[in-house]
Design goal:
Chain lengths: 825, 381
């Protein structure tokens, strides 16, 4: 064999050996490491998308929709993309970074913010182009990574300075904008001169473009801001609305806070490891060599944290936004529109339909409780016991992420919250493939959602609407005009069936915003009753003493002093009361002196029995909010003792003076210290009207199935006693009665006023009764909470009932539904 | 490797046409066809890639078929033209800083209307020709004649290409130079010594490298986590995911997730092998490597069959050209080598690259056709 042939063999052999190494490497990557790389690929490309479940609709008794889901659109924002692709964001972050590095920012004074006007951004851009290019070179003392980030912002801004449509100009400028390759030299030449030199474009042209281009970008932001002004979801600030620029500032601050928090956590973790790890990041965190390292790690952490789409607005009108977000490729980077389901409340009853999103996170890592290797029997979260690279732990983390995706919409309060088990479905999910730019390209798997069930409730939307109008109208009462923020409630039940027909209250909003913490407080919070209880006390008196009740009573002189208690006042001076017929008279005039004496004779057990008979006294339990649902048998359950307006226990020595004896039967009999929700009072009056205490019924149908109501409880009332009390209630709305001036009596309704002192300056004003008086069909209760002293139950509350009855009497549709409305008398 | 050193059987009986290496041309067209298949696979994923397959097909047919007649150029004429060809390629590289266009921060191209020409690709066959011309006379084992003089011929194009900057193309010249020198008679020990010196020089020159080059080396060595996620290591990371994710059988043509979903950068040029590995798996990519290596081995075999020294060195140079590009390109895609932009000749997109590859094939063709009649390569090794 010749020498040349030998040499060729050597060459071929070297090549062959290299091939073997290459094939070995391929086998290693594709044969043994496949799972690792597939996992990496899927982590980046495959994401779970949640499919919202349709929440069941809430319908009123006639099928009118109170709240339902409608397909809509929500706007989400990937702030990382925005930060990297919007000139304002690039300038702002460069300014912040320079300040963090101890340099003067791009603008003088305080740091740049999105909310700043256009001139400040123009000033910052001009300052940037006038800066020496050496500012961004690696020769700076900032370190390579930070210099790279600075260059990214600077050249990124110049990249997006040019309008997308001006391609040729832009293309030439783009040639030098690859910040990764352009490690700038330490030349003192300005960036605009540097650009001019590299591209051949006069530097003046760059400067001239700044205002034009920034105006273009600013206009797009302002247009979107206009569309979203009422529906922005500020991070950590539910209900706040405002300008999109404020929103961006808030979002920027939010991510900054989260990054700093993550940095602290990781530093603590790294210090625990005592520098055992050799990774770059661990070294940085553990040693914490200086501010530059801290800044560098902060940039890195923030980069990771921002990798999520943040909800901007849930109620996006698609048409105006489509041109802004979807129609332009670079107009508003990072903004993405998603299809979603929106809860549409009936505008007349905004308190129904209030939902919020809640992530279904696992409460405890059950998978870890069965984990044997780590001995996690005591504290499954103890980081010292968990091997973080353990596949089981990683699996749990994965499940946790998946569950977090399965967000559920839950009712905030009121009906939405009470009907949660029926209204809520199960959200679906699908696995989608996203390309490098986050665009959804393919769908891998789909788990369909399960919709919630429709619920039909006993409310009558039309009646409720009239009740709301009546409450609003009554605020402008004849005697005293009450402020719009006055709280009031109106409850109406069907006297025969106990079905709740009206639940209405005002205000629905406080300072223009929904009161998320207390959406329905007015309708089922406990309020001091006052004289509203007197008809029930009267029944007990009749039961124990017969029709001759009142014999031997002291005449009313306007005040009366029970034994061992302070003086009780009566508004009217009724003089010497005749024995026969004194009870109706006393009810009609709400005579405190008379009922105090009745109370003294009944004693505390007698008073309690009187109230318990009509479902207003039940020891030992609290009312479940909201009322009248399947599990609520007894209705109102006040407890003995003085309570504040919201049911909070109060000391005995309240605002009413040291002489007040809370357990005095005389005071109890005139309504002192007794509390009940308006709905309970309406039910009690329905029982008074019909002789049967109805079981409250709220749910009529759930998911196509009828929900039976509770049977009414027969009160076994003597008709003679009923007649006597009815005369009293007639007298209340008749001439000389406490509610006469409201005119409610003319419409055929009877009732009892009540004015309970809740402090020296404020009262609860009640008007409760039934309608029509001859054959009662409705039991109602109207209360104005905390009205100023001097406003009584016969004023605004009785007026509200009158306005309501007038309105429903004229409504042809309601006359069809409730025929007795045509001729109530 | 007896097949490599077997005596040719068709020596003189067949005509001049029969001596043309049709088998090599067949291999080259086969590889080009495979390349077109995967170029087509990358096309729908990115608008910028649209039309690449069509343009590449045009270039392959035009150059692959059009260059065949030039294989019969007279040896004497070729030898006479060699210094001019070398000079021309060197001049083109020299003029590049003044008249070239910058794309992605590198000035490697001349703009000819809508098209661009990359002189570095033409410098490669020119270098092979020049080195073979220089070492055609007689075997030499001395430092000067066997290594330093050819090294000076290499230094010009190497420095000019590296300064573009295009370190990948520049480095691909070194195996060609070493292979030709070794085949021409240079001592293996001296070559090893030279390689060692080269490595030390590279280490010494590290501070003078571009920032992005330093970053790539650091990422490749696993010393820079941040750049690995954010910048310099992105290409390598995505390429490894593509290759590793392909598994043994691949995801199917035009089904590779890294390719289709736009994660893999420069996938029609510098990372084409990653697409192949992702879509055809270990078996497909190994087959491609073996096919490509077969082309190189066949060229080496031709080198052994060619009686004259000039023709043999041309074949060795061309074989080393294809072998080095295969190793560097696949090495980068699989993470064996630091990331550098080097296309895979005959497969990757790029008309300059295609032209360079077919010119190398032309040199092989010429060596086969004109081998026996050559008077210039008198001395037989």
């Amino acid at each position: 064999m010749s020498s040349a042939a030998k040499r060729l063999i050597v060459l071929a052999g070297v090549f062959f050996l290299s091939l073997l190494i290459l094939l070995g490497r391929l086998l290693y990557l594709q044969g043994f490491q496949k799972e690792t790389f597939v996992a990496k690929r899927e982590k980046r490309q495959l994401t779970w998308a949640s499919l919202p479940d349709r929440r069941g609709a809430i319908l009123d008794r006639w099928g009118d929709v109170l709240a339902s889901d409608a397909p809509g659109y929500e706007l989400r924002m990937d702030y990382r993309t925005f930060r990297r692709k919007h000139p304002f964001a690039l300038l702002l972050h460069l300014d912040h970074l320079l300040r963090q590095l101890g340099r003067e920012g791009l603008v003088s004074g305080k740091a740049l913010a999105y909310v700043d006007g256009l001139p400040r951004f123009v000033q910052a851009a001009e300052r940037l182009l006038a800066s020496p290019s050496s500012l961004f070179s690696n020769n700076q003392s900032w370190g390579r990574h930070i210099a790279e980030v600075c260059r990214f912002y600077a050249f990124g801004f110049i990249h997006y300075l040019f309008l997308p449509e001006e391609r040729f100009f832009r293309k030439r400028a783009l040639l030098l904008l690859d910040f990764k390759r352009k490690a700038l030299k330490g030349d003192p030449v300005s960036i605009s001169s540097f650009l001019a030199k590299e591209t051949g474009i006069p530097s003046q042209l760059f400067l001239e473009r700044i205002p034009k281009t920034l105006t273009h970008w600013s206009r797009d932001l302002d247009r979107l801001s206009g569309v979203l002004s009422q529906s922005l979801h500020f991070p950590g600030m539910p209900g706040k609305s405002g300008d999109l620029r404020h929103y961006l500032d808030a979002l920027d601050a939010y991510f900054g806070r989260r990054a700093r928090s993550a940095q602290r956590a990781r530093k603590a973790q790294a210090q625990k490891k005592a520098g055992a790890s050799s990774s770059w990041l661990s070294r940085v965190f553990a040693k914490d060599k200086g501010s530059l390292n801290r800044l560098s790690s902060l940039i890195y952490l923030r980069f990771r944290i921002e990798d999520q789409a943040f909800l901007v607005s849930r109620e996006v009108p698609l048409d105006p936004v489509v041109a802004l977000v979807l129609g332009k490729r670079e107009g508003l980077p990072g903004f993405v529109i998603h299809e979603s389901l929106r809860r549409i409340p009936n505008p007349k009853l905004p308190w129904i339909g209030l939902v919020r999103e809640k992530a279904a996170r696992p409460k405890s890592p059950k998978i870890l409780l069965s984990y044997e290797g780590g001995k996690l029997d005591q504290d499954p979260f103890d980081p010292n016991k968990i091997n973080f690279s353990d596949p089981e732990w990683l699996e749990w983390k994965r499940i946790q992420r998946l569950r977090a995706l399965r967000k559920r919409r839950v009712g905030v309060d009121g009906l939405e919250r009470a009907l949660e088990p029926w209204l809520t479905g199960i959200p679906g999910k699908r696995r989608v493939v996203r390309d490098r730019f986050g665009k959804e390209r393919n769908q891998r798997s789909l788990l369909r959602e399960v919709p919630g069930q429709d619920v039909k409730v006993s409310l009558d939307l039309r009646l409720t609407t009239y009740a709301l109008k009546a409450l609003h109208s009554a605020l402008n009462g004849r005697k005293r005009r009450l402020p719009p923020s006055q709280r009031a409630a109106f409850a109406l039940v069907d006297a025969a069936t106990g079905e709740i027909l009206v639940l209405a209250w005002i205000p629905e909003r406080v300072n223009g915003m929904r009161d998320l913490k207390n959406t329905a407080a007015q309708i089922w919070h406990y309020a001091l009753l006052g004289s509203t209880v007197k008809p029930f006390i009267a029944f007990q008196a009749l039961l124990t003493q017969g029709l001759a009740v009142g014999e031997g009573f002291a005449p009313c002189t306007g005040l009366w002093k029970p034994k061992g208690d302070r003086v009780i006042h009566c508004d009217g001076v009724h003089g010497s009361l005749q024995y026969l017929g004194v009870l109706p008279y006393s009810i009609a005039h709400s005579c405190n002196v008379y009922f105090a004496q009745v109370g003294e004779r009944l004693g505390l057990p007698g008073v309690a029995e009187a109230l318990a008979h009509f479902g207003l006294w039940q020891l030992g339990s609290r009312y479940q909010s909201p009322p009248g649902l399947l599990v609520d048998p007894a209705g109102p359950v006040p407890r003995p003792g003085v309570r504040g307006p919201h049911g909070a226990p109060k000391p005995v020595k309240g605002s009413l003076g040291s002489l007040y004896i809370p357990r005095s039967p005389a005071r109890r009999a005139i309504g002192y210290g007794l509390e009940a929700p308006p709905l309970a009072v309406a039910r009690a009056y329905a029982g008074l009207a019909t002789g049967k205490l109805p079981g409250l019924r709220f749910l009529l149908r759930v998911g196509g199935r009828d929900v039976p109501g509770l049977p009414a409880q027969n009160l076994h009332l003597d008709p003679a006693f009923v007649k006597e009390v009815h005369r009293g209630l007639e007298g209340t709305v008749g001439p000389g009665g406490t509610a006469f001036r409201s005119g409610v009596g003319r419409l055929g309704a009877v009732g009892k006023t009540g004015t309970a002192e809740i402090s020296r300056r404020f009262n609860n004003a009640w008007f409760s009764g039934y309608y029509p008086e001859k054959s009662p069909r409705f039991g109602f209760s109207c209360v104005f909470f905390g009205v100023p002293h001097g406003v009584h139950g016969g004023d605004q509350p009785a007026s509200a009932v009158r306005i309501f009855l007038e309105a429903i009497g004229k409504d042809p549709l309601l006359q069809k539904r409730y025929p007795f409305l045509r001729d109530p008398k | 490797m007896s097949w490599l050193t077997e005596a040719p059987t068709h020596r003189t009986r067949l005509g001049i046409l029969a001596r043309f290496p049709f088998s090599l041309w067949f291999f080259a067209f086969l590889l080009s066809g495979i390349g077109l298949l995967f170029l087509h696979s990358t096309e729908p994923t990115k608008p910028a890639y649209l039309g690449q397959t069509y343009r590449q097909t045009q270039a392959i047919l035009f150059l692959g078929l059009g260059l065949i007649p030039f294989a019969w150029i007279r040896r004497r004429s070729l030898l006479g033209l060699t210094p001019w060809i070398y000079g021309l390629s060197l001049s083109a590289l020299l003029l590049l800083p003044f008249f070239g266009v910058t794309i992605n921060g590198a000035r490697r191209w001349f703009a000819l209307g809508a098209a661009t020409v990359q002189p570095a690709e033409f410098a490669k066959p020119a270098l092979i020709l020049t080195l073979a011309y220089l070492l055609r006379e007689r075997p030499s084992n001395g430092w000067w004649a066997a290594l330093i003089l050819p090294g000076l011929v290499l230094a010009g194009p190497f420095a000019l290409i590296a300064s573009q900057p295009d370190l990948g193309s520049a480095l691909s010249l070194i195996p060609v130079y070493l292979a030709i020198s070794y085949a021409a008679g240079a001592s293996g020990r001296k070559i090893l010594l030279l390689l060692l010196l080269g490595l030390l020089t590279v280490a010494a020159l590290y501070p003078f490298l571009h920032e992005y080059q330093k970053a790539r080396i650091l990422v490749w060595l696993g010393l820079d986590q941040m750049s690995g996620n954010l910048g310099a290591g992105y290409h390598l990371k995505q390429s490894l995911i593509a290759v590793g994710g392909g598994g043994m059988f691949g995801q199917g043509i035009s089904q590779g997730a890294q390719n289709v979903y736009d994660y893999l950068p420069y996938r029609s040029t510098d990372f084409l092998f990653s697409v192949v590995a992702e879509e055809t798996g270990f078996f497909g990519s190994s087959l491609l490597i073996l096919l490509y290596a077969s082309l190189s081995f066949l060229i080496f075999r031709k080198a052994n069959q060619i009686p004259d020294r000039f023709g043999r060195l041309l074949c060795v140079g061309a074989g080393a050209f294809f072998a080095s590009h295969l190793l560097i390109h696949t090495g980068v895609c699989t993470g064996l080598l630091p990331p550098t932009g080097l296309p895979l000749p005959l497969l990757s997109y790029g008309r300059s690259s295609v032209a360079g590859a077919w010119l190398c094939m032309l040199l092989v063709g010429h060596a086969c056709v004109r081998g026996e009649r050559s008077l210039a390569g008198g001395a037989r090794a």
